[in-house]
Amino acid sequence: MALVFVTGGSGFLGTLLVNDLLAAGHSVTNIDLVPSELKHPRLRSVVGDIRNRALLDSLLRDTQHEVVLHCAALLAHGRISPQELWSANVDGTRTLAAAVAAAKIPQVIFTSSNCLWSTGFSLPVKEDEPPAPAEIYGSSKLAGEEILQSHRADFATTIIRCPTIIDEGRLGLLAILFEFIAEGRRVWLVGDGSNRYQFIYARDLIDAMKLAWRAGRNSLFGIGSDNVASLRQCYEHVITAAQSRARVASLPKGPTLLAMRAAYGLRLSPLGPYQYRMIASSFEFDTSRIKAELGWRPTLANHDMLLVAYRYYAANRVEIQNRQDVSAHRKPADMGAIRVLKWLS
Fold first, then answer.
1. All structural domains of the chain
2. Neighbour count for residue 55 (Cβ, 10 Å)
């Protein structure tokens, strides 16, 4: 069994990943800005910052870690400043890469993002599509990719570009949608909801990360679900399965996007450029490369994984509302001006 180093192992994806590795018999070192809820004799969990080179050296040198699974990232949510986000995501990745090289760890797996693009696409996006981020989170992920790829002589890097990651426990902005459904309110679409926006099931992503680890080479992959349903179909599936009184309704696309941009600019809404695209346009990765090279296959479609996440929310709603000191995806996002829309729904 291997010794694995995980960054961001206390977050939504990281907690699932660490649990999976421990269940498989591996030993794990986790570094995160927040404490882990997990306790295990083969888990060493450190509250710390990946920008702290001395700390990384103390954790990595002479330890025989086989791989680094780099999931740590700050999101453009809440009160995080652009400077802090860039420093954590970019300077943190730069410091981590240097420490990995010094410790002679042979491989890094990096979770990147579809935020590398600011617009939707009518066709599935291939790995050679030139990135064009329009906001700081996407730009920070692209910079992270470039830093890791510059260390090809030191270690192998597999970059996995992910759409929105869904599983039980995924909250953040999704908790706003789930609250509307749980309370039987109107669930709003921007436009007619015919856009198809791909998700990835967290456990399918974890399987891909483990396959990439076994492959042990420099690679770049887009990942995501198959048979992507429209956003309207996804919402209606969850509403029906939940036996909710909620119903799907539409807002005019042009005026709504203008209002969303204005509200975000005034810091009245948590919905930024990434959410504009998810709500109103289509985006899907071409997953033929990862399927061919790693033999990976997704197990859940969008509507099924969204229902998994909703059922977790519904079963744990009271506890969720009281959460503190957890990562952004493991607690509800602040509604801001969206609360007005809720009152009208």
1. 3-166+198-222 (3.40.50.720), 174-197+227-282+300-343 (no CATH)
2. 16
